[in-house]
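dumping these here so i dont lose them again. two proteins, back to back, each one seq then structure tokens. dont judge the mess
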Amino acid sequence: MLFYGIEMMKQGAEPLKSLPWFTSLLNGSGQSYFFAFAGAGAFSFITQSSTAVSILAIGLAQTGLLGPFPTMMAIYGANVGSTFARMALSSTLKGAGRQLTAYQDLFKIAGVALFVPLLYVEVLGRVPLVCRFIEWRIPVSEEVDDAQPQYLYDEALDEPATALDLIEKEQLRLARRLRRYSAALRTGPGSPERAEALLIDEPFAAVAARIDRFQHELVNHQLGPGETERLTKLQTRLSLTVYLADSMTTLTVVTAAVPPGGRLGDLVSTFVEALDFVLLTMIEAIESGDRSSLDLLKRITEDHGDLMQQVRQDYLAEERSIETADRAALLQVTCVFARVVWMTHRFARLIDASPVDGQVAERPAGTVGVLPGVVV
């Protein structure tokens, strides 16, 4: 029941993200831990329950509205508030009953008197104490966090405009993860970064599936023409983002055996840097919607004919004794590169403010735009 209550509080607190005054209030209180302590203490005194206040604080923390230290102070304050409530209620008791309640009150107040100063020492003195100990003792798995959507909640479906904004934010989170692949591709074969990059797939797919379900559920609500068009574009953007992740995973696997040195290794490194620049430009265009970023993204991913074919021919002409494995790796790398660039160009058209064609044009095989660092 406790965990069910936390989940219900989390879902109930999600709509509060869209209230600027509430977010501003919590952000302001994040600098004043006494506010969190006193507010939780007063609420706990009124409700006579530290558990209810703790569940509320944890729910706000899980939605990102309350930081870890204010949450800790709220829990400490909740214990003090419920203690004073119990002291007031037990004031008429006598004998052993009064002694037992006094012992419990002393235990909780002593604990708060110890842990509140430790929190201030940890925050102000930057000394790793309680919070750091808990993080070390019970580490949070990055994969678990990455597999959970941060912005989506079912109640937002009743407000299509808000739901569409939340979908955009969640898709942006996925797009930012794509650069983890390029960071891993810069490292050599068998590196820990490459192994971690391959672990991105499962949580990435989990969040993408949750976004997809949310989008389909939104279709069943009453949408205006503009909202329907926007949702259609977001559905296509999600599909492209998933395809981009699949392509980057393929590139990570294909280049796993390519040594960093040598002609092929240098060529792969050039492709990786170019892809990272494309992804970075795409993310900037999504975040800002700036016309210059959009124009740059479309320009560097435009179709310029047989560039990839020329790259393959030049490499094979210089390396006449190339091994079969290297030949296959070259073919796969250039094909994946061309596919990623084409999909990014399609993505640029979707985030552009101008009208988008209803149908996606077929991509000529082996075509790609002119990119920084790709020299034929």
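---- next one ----
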Amino acid sequence: MQLTSDEDAFLLEATWKLLKSSPFNRYGQHWVEIGFQGRDPATDLRSTGVLSLLMIYMLGQRFPKYFKKVYSSSTDCIFEFPFAISLVKITGAYVKLLKKAKLPANTFEEYCEWF
């Protein structure tokens, strides 16, 4: 998947800024630190496209305290899991369930109301 539009680039940079205070750089090892599999986060978005990136960004915007807490846990030596790719996989699973009509479309909004 290519992140080619200005909106895609903005979303990628905005997502970076939710997690890190260091300057944004489109490519580099720093993406692995937040849980992507390589130096270019776009390669991990092949299955779900920009939807995953949008989901990561919106979680960070809507629930910043929990978002940072989960990210921090992902880098903890006890839990240590790939934060970004985990959210990409969750997005993919959710889309599959929606396509199979196993989940109502408003489930995520209802879940958000709990917070």
